[in-house]
Amino acid sequence: MIEKIKEMENVTKSIKEKILNHNGYIRVITHHDPDGLSSGGILAKMLMRSNKLFHLTVVEHLSDNVIQKLAKENEVNKPLFIFADMGSGQIDNIIENNFNAIILDHHPPIIKESFVNENIIQLNPHIFGVDGSKELTASGVCYLVAREFGYYDLSSLAIVGIIGDMQYRPLLGLNKFIVNEAREHRYVKIVSDLIYNIYDVEIHKSIAYCTKPYIPELASEVKAFKFLKDIGIDPNKKRFDDSDRKKFLSAIIFKYPKIENLIIDRYLINHKVNDAMLLSEMLNAVGRSGLFAIGIGICLEDDECIKKGYEILWEYKKNLVNELKNVKLKKLNNIYYFEGKKGMIGIIASILVDDKPVIGYHIEGDLAKFSARGNRELVERGLDLSIAMAVAKEFGGTGGGHNVASGAVVPKDKVKDFLNRVDEIIGEQLKK
């Protein structure tokens, strides 16, 4: 991977120069998921340390509406725009509006060049033959710029993005390089542990509200409490010790045979929320709850934001488990689908995916918004959800993303037709 880093250095050096030479303020636009919020945290810390004036905004989509608002701002103030975790798929619109811009993205690019024109530089792993769906996240792309400034400690937030974008099982390519570099500089320590030990709450609550994995038979505080009590473990302890762990794994195998999913590598990072998976879950909760500023504040280690983040996380986890209990999966030939609540459909789809992709949607005004999730096994069989969801254009909408996770928006009266077309496309992909 060192050769890939060296290939990218020409671009990261140019981006650093572009940032340092810009005299006006800098306009950062990033996504609301954990990878996007981690990207925003990296860029905010980098720009503050560089004494740069900036304004950061978090959005769900880089829609035409968002672009038009930024275009009006551009006419007045002529900022330097930095787009993180977005932009490569909307680059035509960025060019058309004559933005002075840096794009730090890992989604498949429309233009496969780093130096797009005299005003736009794009750092995207796909341009260098690196798969952005499994080998490098947007926060990883942002970190490659930050390390050009010498800010190796920001690798911690890149690790949070790697976990948030589900690119850590296994670690591949530049993701592995970033984690190894963080270990080399002692910004992360990796230990094997039960997933329930990351939360620092009573273990019966950790079990009841855990969704990675989701165990329906223990998905309530009463059930989890009784299970632990019956096998001789204090349900109110905040941590499994070695003895508890052996008892627990011996007993849980009868309710959940895939016990290997309960043992994780914990990434202990140099952050006030020192477990990267816990921090990722917290960012997901605040982002999905629409509290974007709190998410950035958590990345910047603001104590009040972190306190609020814990509250939101547990409220979100309780709502998520309740929603999981109520989900009614429907089946077509090649997909499962369901209608759910805003902010939860993506995570629910990722929890429920198994032998077929799962697509969740919710209705918002006149639009239906979709989140589709697959897994590595399905991708290896030919699944590419970015292509399947891009068919939304045929129905007057938009769609795209990664092969394993993607989204779309279509008019609400096109839901059935859209799902049927996606089902056809996925069927063709999985037959190959």
UniProtKB/TrEMBL annotation:
EC number: 3.1.-.-
UniProt GO MF annotations: exonuclease activity; nucleic acid binding
InterPro entries listed in its UniProt record: DHH_sf, DHHA1_dom, SSDNA_exonuclease_RecJ
Residues in the signal sequence: none
Keywords: Exonuclease, Hydrolase, Nuclease
Xref: Gene3D superfamilies: 3.10.310.30, 3.90.1640.30
Keyword Zinc: no
Pfam families: DHHA1 (PF02272)
Domain DHHA1: 339-427
Top-level class of the enzyme under EC nomenclature: hydrolase
Protein name: Single-stranded-DNA-specific exonuclease recJ
Species assigned in the record: Methanocaldococcus lauensis
